[in-house]
Structures are given as C-alpha cells and as structure tokens.
C-alpha cells in the first residue's frame, strides 16, 4: 500500500494543490494528513474542504495545534502572529468545517504505522521532535515500527537500531530510502504549506508499506501567489515573507 503523507498545510491552497497533483502521479492507495490545516495562510476554507473530501474517500487525518486553536481546544497560548491568524480564520469557517476540526483525533494507527501531529508521548501538549533525544523519546513511547509526525516543518528522518543506537538523517528529495530490517523509524515529511528549511518548495512524503520504502518529495509551487494572498488578506507581513524565503 502506498501512502501519501502531508502535514502542516497551513491554509496554503497553492502548495496543497501542487503536492496533491504531484502525488497523483504515483497513484497512492491512501492519503494521510498529519495536522495543521489552518493557520498562517489565506485559504483555510478551500484547504479544509479539500482535506474533508479526501477523508470522505478514506484518508486518515489527525489534529494539529493550529486546528485545536481554531476549534477552541488548545490549552496554551500561541505566538502573536499565529494567534492573529487564528482569530482571522475562525469567523470564515462554516459550522461543518469547525466541527471537522473539533472531531479530529490526536493520533491514528495503520498496520505498523503511528501518526501524530507533534509527538506520540503527549500529543495533546504539542512538544516538537527537533533532536535525536526527542526522537528517542518518541520511539520509546509507542511500539510501532514507523512513526510519522509533523509540527517541526523541516524534513527529517531518525532510526533506532536493535542495540539502541539512534541515527539522524537529512533526507535527499526524490531518493527512495529502504526502511526494512530490524530498525525502527521516525519520519517528519516536512511542511507542505510553510517550509522553513531555506527551500521554498512544498514538502511531503510517500511511504510504501509493502516494500517499506520512504521517499521525501519537494514540489515547486506558486509561492509568490500564496504570499500575495496572505498580504491581500491583511495577515501579518512576516508570514508572507516566510513563504518567499522559507526562512
């Protein structure tokens, strides 16, 4: 089964469209959305309708912290720019879209795979996986062979050997990585809607559960158009510049 893994869409219509078009060339059997459908970007309604459509056709979707904030269930404050976009987003959503965000689970499982937006040890606390120590904590929290998270925005891959040795890799886009064997793995596909690693191309990943092969993808898209939409909506200027520079 081929899974398309997308996370941190952040209301970026242009980026999500490009990723879905790219993924369609590989004919995934199932899509997995790892949270943060809203926030930062200018098209939350379109992005939510698109994700909801995929869920109706069998996609897996979990809740991100921006989704929780929009749904009114986030227990901690956000940075001023992020909070401003949440306040802008809420009145634009229809009741069924807000209900969708509220209904999303924090985690999901499929065969040997575990999915969460932030982490598997306390998904409701929204702590990041940013280091090998964080990855070791995550791999100790659940028994699954494969863990997929978002939240951190930068693509990353960690593994844990049977001897307890942790490895950390910066994946090369387009190169299939074999994950077979006794090692356990944690992968962060990178953000589709707001890359932050200096590469403005949208990020997502493909995982073949049969061959246990993972491929990180980068997809150029109309980031200038997405930034212009952020400015036209009157959202904070740094959010538009981030789409242009991925910094």
Describe this entry's structure for a reader.
- The protein is of the alpha/beta class and 247 residues long.
- Among the domains are: 31-105, no CATH class; 107-176 and 183-190, no CATH class.
- 32% of the residues lie in helices and 22% in strands.
- The protein contains eight helices and twelve strands.
- It has a six-stranded mixed sheet.
- Strand 1 (2-6), helix 1 (13-24) and strand 2 form a beta-alpha-beta unit.
- The radius of gyration is 17 Å and the shape is globular.
- The N and C termini lie far apart (34 Å).
- 46% of the residues are buried.
- The model has no long low-confidence stretch (mean pLDDT 96).
Spans of at least 5 consecutive residues whose pLDDT stays below 50 are none
Annotation, overall tally of beta strands: 12
Large-scale geometry: globular
Beta-strand portion reads 15-25%
Q: What is the share of helical residues?
A: 25-40%
Radius of gyration over C-alpha positions, nearest whole angstrom: 17 Å
Strand order of the largest sheet: 3-2-1-11-12-9
Tell me which oligomeric state these chains represent. Answer: single chain
SSE-based structural type:
alpha/beta
The helix/strand order is EHEHEHHHEEHEEEEEEEHH
In short:
The protein has 247 residues and is of the alpha/beta class. It has helices at residues 13-24, 44-56, 65-71, 80-89, 95-103, 132-141, 223-232, 237-245, and strands spanning 2-6, 30-33, 60-61, 107-110, 113-116, 146-149, 156-160, 166-169, 176-178, 184-188, 202-208, 213-219. Among the domains are: 31-105, no CATH class; 107-176 and 183-190, no CATH class.
